[in-house]
Amino acid sequence: ELRHRASPWQRNLGYPLAMLGLLALTGISVLIVCFHVLELLLDDAAMPRGIQDASLGQVSFSIFGSFGAALQVVLIFYLMLSSVVGFYSSPLFTHLLPQRRDTPLTKIIGNCVSLLVLSSALPVFSRTLGITRFDLLGDFGRFNWLGNFYIVFLYNMGFAGLTSLCLVKRVSWAAQTELLRAFGGDG
């Protein structure tokens, strides 16, 4: 219903550009994680431990300078939004979604706790995946399990594999649907 009410500019330009942007951000994050996996295999310094004696502003946290730092910020916001959308889309937590003008206080508290847990996990998540090396001055690199190669490696491989699988499945499913619709099949 929202698609029918949308203007032709939104339907023909806005939605495809938004979809291409989401595909690009997902692809870039998977490429960065794959690069981080290669770094993990070749160099022990790629482990997401804390940075020692690195003052803010004296050390570049990106090999691409300002552009790389801006890309890291965009990817972290993308990961934050996608984790919130994924959380509320899971069958276990769909009942937690607030309804307009009809949300009990316990549900509001549950949403606050859920968002607090997700936002607290985001720095460790982005650091473990190799998206950023910035520690947010919270010493997240002091967690003992961040020094375990196997946990970090499997975490990165799981993210890259499952995200790639979802991306391929979503894109190929949409292409199959469009091909069936174009050739007059049931679609």
UniProtKB/TrEMBL annotation:
One of its GO terms (biological process) is Wnt signaling pathway. InterPro entries: LIMR, LMBR1-like_membr_prot. It comes from the Eukaryota. GO terms for molecular function: transmembrane signaling receptor activity. Its main location: membrane. The chain crosses the membrane at residues 12-38, 58-88, 108-125, 145-168. Keywords: Cell membrane, Endocytosis, Endoplasmic reticulum, Membrane, Receptor, Transmembrane, Transmembrane helix, Wnt signaling pathway. One of its GO terms (cellular component) is plasma membrane. It holds the Pfam family LMBR1. It is a multi-pass membrane protein. It is found in: Cell membrane; Endoplasmic reticulum membrane. The keyword Isomerase does not apply. Belongs to the LIMR family. This is LMBRL protein. It comes from Centropus unirufus.
